[in-house]
Amino acid sequence: MNRLVKAMAIAGIAVTAALSSQASLAQNFYKGYQAAEWARIVEGARKEGRVTLYYVSTQPVVDRIKAAFNKQYPGIQLDMLRLVGTELVGKLDQERATGADGGDVAITPETQWAATRATDKGVVQPAGPASANWPAKYVINGVAPLIGMEPLIIVYNSKLVTTPVTGYQDLLRPEFKGKVATPDLVANIFFAFYEWQEQTLGAKFLPALAAQGPRFYPSCVPITQQIVVGELLAETLCVATIITPLIAQGAPIKMVVPKPAVATPFAGVITAWSKRPNAAQVFMDFVMSPAGQGAWAALGEMASPLPNIPNALDINSMTALDPTRFTPEIAKAYRARWNTMFNR
Q1: Whole-prediction pTM value?
Q2: List of domains in the chain
């Protein structure tokens, strides 16, 4: 059990990034791919010899991507740096302003940032063969590909809960009274999550959840620990990349991807100031390819924009979360109503 708890601490990821709405997705296909030019880019990437990726995902995910990339492009070294939340895009903006060497590519949930940089020429359009068939609705402002979506999931104790949980409404069953956890309003993503629940599940759902006497948390990692040991039975929000390693180690938990689900979208960006522009193109093309998408979705943790990716979740059943509308004024009003509802 201690090994499981330690693994959860290592796997923790702060789900606090601001996400853009699906309305920002462009409606045109990439048109830049040319075979002869791509051959030149790949040769240039081999000469550059390495590429630096900034990311926020958990380590097992990027380790799978790195292993698959190294297998396909053994002559190009992939360096990786994990930066949580807005730290990633802040570092990229600083590097752009100073001309410093740093991130060549990034995988970030800050899709609103990607949309802005797509319009001010801060990121570069992919030019590889994978871009030629990339679905149109998964392109941000005609430049940055939305390369995957990670659903917000329900988790429950599979030993103590004998009737399977299939969706949020099941958490209103009497057995979960005082034994279910839900996020506190510590980040805009949680404001957006509750708003989505109201819009999707109806106005009666949150008052009914409040009547269950839920416990509140700023992160799902400590709550998952309590579910593993049976102190709690379920939580309304976590992410699969935290849960699947624990299930593989024998933790008595199950994850549920609701239908419909709300999800964190991830943008892939090639920085316009990259010191290794060819290697950046090669890496982004790999991530957009079936091989790259397959590495990311291998354990059933992600939804892919591409069809027929083994183990990928159904992206068509997911809505991209949008915390960006929660300005301080809107958030203040929503918090007052939420506090009254949950007696906080």
Answers
A1: 0.82
A2: 2-6+152-262+325-337 (3.40.190.10), 15-149+263-314 (3.40.190.10)
